[in-house]
Amino acid sequence: MNVLILGATGRVGSQIVTYALHDRHHVTVLVRNPEKFQINNENLTIIQGNVLNKDDIVRAMHGIDVVISALNTDGTTTLSESMPLIIEAMENEGMKRIITIGTAGILQSRTTPNSLRYQSSESKQKSTRAAKEHHKVYDLLKQSTIEWTIVCPTYLPDGERLGEYRVERDFLPVDGVKINVSDTAEFTYKQIESNNYIKSRVGIAY
């Protein structure tokens, strides 16, 4: 399978690249600084570019079967500004499948019906800026024709892959407080061959 990974230099994205190459998929990454990308593999194509540049996105999409976006908010609006370009390029190419990393803040609240977690007392985050960025992406994907899945981890420390975790459609698993980067990357990667969570958010936690 030809997989495009965005956000490939980040904590989650770089591990998704490793999982995909291990299974001998052909991986394309779009990165601003190729010299920062330390992986060498015959199945890896590195394209220098920016997710905010429409031409770069179109170039990276060529011949791709599935897109994984592990772009993070980083105190910017890159996430919400790039998603319309990604969706347009996918729809123009006739591509259907995207898996993105979101945040537990955009899952449904258990305590406040019709609200998302970041809009309710469930969220412990003092700042809602990142969640609002992810919420914009969620709304954009809902309005699109593509088959999306948003993986929504809670607190995301580094750590060894445990291989066991709980997932729940649209909600954070009850009493879930954290999920390691490695397990988040593994679950996200596995969705390229799964139809279990099409057009759904997925909460993930131990």
UniProtKB/TrEMBL annotation:
Superkingdom: Bacteria
One GO molecular-function entry: oxidoreductase activity, acting on the CH-NH group of donors, NAD or NADP as acceptor
Membrane-crossing residue ranges in chain numbering: none
Signal peptide: none
Protein name: Uncharacterized protein
Organism lineage: Bacteria, Bacillati, Bacillota, Bacilli, Bacillales
